[in-house]
Amino acid sequence: KAGVTQTPRYLIKTRGQQVTLSCSPISGHRSVSWYQQTPGQGLQFLFEYFSETQRNKGNFPGRFSGRQFSNSRSEMNVSTLELGDSALYLCASSLGSGAGNSPLHFGNGTRLTVT
Amino acid sequence: QQQVKQSPQSLIVQKGGISIINCAYENTAFDYFPWYQQFPGKGPALLIAIRPDVSEKKEGRFTISFNKSAKQFSLHIMDSQPGDSATYFCAASGAGSYQLTFGKGTKLSVIP
Q1: How confident is the model at residue B96 (pLDDT cuts 50, 70, 90)?
Q2: Which end of chain B is more exposed for a tag (fewer CB within 10 A), N or C?
Q3: For residue B65, what are the β-bridge partners?
Q4: B44 contact residues in A (CB cutoff 8 A)
């Protein structure tokens, strides 16, 4: 079974630009969560989607948004990029009944660098 | 504030030794406590997890100890191997949620 696939692996953008990251979950998984990983703040929850609906959102500004398609694939978008948005963005998929019942499976991330 | 505090930041252990990483949480609503292992260039992978109705869970060389009254839990890696060298994260959430709160991570180096 293929794992969680994130594309692209690396991105370099300029301040003020916008970026879209893509995530393909494990087949059969209906929940997709996004996390930001930085050396200073560690792993922080961005949002979670289930059946095309955002179920939960972390404490990030509105510049961070996401969506999920009917095939469970997900995208996240960051508008008006800031230097502090440089991070590893991780996507994780699961069956959807909560981490205690169906654990998260993480992809290898997209490394975003903002210059 | 929903925090999970993890210590130590880094740990060096001899091959065959015991590695111990500790975490403390504040939110009593948390009822799911996983540990993740992350290698460079890879995403975190679930190692072992515990619910608060048990005080200990063992899977192979990995054991979680859980102290509900102290709001603390720890990961013990027995017979540590060089292949265990990675960054370990504790986390906590409600069992029905995917909003995990992570500790800041422990970089483990197991030297031959």
Answers
A1: confident
A2: N
A3: B56, B74
A4: 43, 90, 106
